[in-house]
Amino acid sequence: MTAPRIIRPDVRSVIQQPLTVGESPVWDEETGTLWFVDIQAPALVRLSASGKIDRFDMPAAIGALGLCRDHRIVVALQTGVHLFDPVSGDFELVSDPVGRHINCRLNDGKVGPDGHFWIGSFSEAKPQTDEAALYRVGADGRTRTVATGLTSSNGLAWSPDGRRMYHSDSRQCFLQAFDFDPDTGDLGDGRRLRGFTEDEGRPDGATTDRDGFYWSAGVSAGCLNRISPEGEIVEIYILPVAAPTMPCFGGPDLRTLFVTSLSTDRPGRFEAGTVIAFDVDAEGLPPFRFGADHPPG
């Protein structure tokens, strides 16, 4: 096994306003806009190409977002999955996968190649339990539980051909992969690709590049791990933030990595959450959109 290449990228700051828990960056290639969330604020944030920031206050904690075909935003709130219209400010409930009977909230999520919103939950019990799960939510509200026994569902991403889905658990510290049917959203059996130590970085949010590598935010180690389809860490990007939470590709050529982070005092001093960016020698893929033309199921 070859030792991973260590890279210290030329990082630039994207925003000046501090975040509590920055998460879920999504690049809208149609408008040149970066969307992300501040979980505990709670707020949905839009950064335009001009640098203008629009902040949309949410009625409950927000875990993740996805783009919709009709230009609304699908948001995962404490109260369920909703469609949010940034123009009118209106919300429309799609599904409440978790309900109120267990102590979990919706966490990491992404729109998949099947046009559905894949969203996982996070145990808020103290100590945490394995009651969290992963759900598949359709635009018609139909919801399917696809994985259980989780503590902190995270790291959703798909291979370039849409035939493999990646998924991690940040607390159980593993990365797994599923065979995936991009037309039906059906999953094969999950298989573990690797586990992680705290020093390597607990696997938080993630993305994939056009060459099929998986980029995982190492939230406990201040780094971004680029991982081969076989599960080997091939590159480690050392970041100037202590707790990166999720990367996404953006920019006009999809060769800029945007990375969100959360507030922490882990370095021995308080560091607010933020969004950073840097250019890489890799190309991302545009995001999928909720409500795509696929058969229901």
UniProtKB/TrEMBL annotation:
Alphabetical UniProt keywords: Hydrolase
InterPro entries: 6-blade_b-propeller_TolB-like, SGL, SMP-30
Residue intervals passing through the bilayer: none
EC number: 3.1.1.99
Hydrolase keyword on record: yes
SMP-30/Gluconolactonase/LRE-like region domain mapped to chain residues: 21-262
Keyword Cytoplasm: no
UniProt enzyme class: hydrolase
GO MF, one example: hydrolase activity
PANTHER family in alphabetical order: REGUCALCIN
Family indicated by similarity: Belongs to the SMP-30/CGR1 family.
Name of the protein described by the UniProt record: SMP-30/gluconolactonase/LRE family protein
Organism annotation: Rhizobium brockwellii
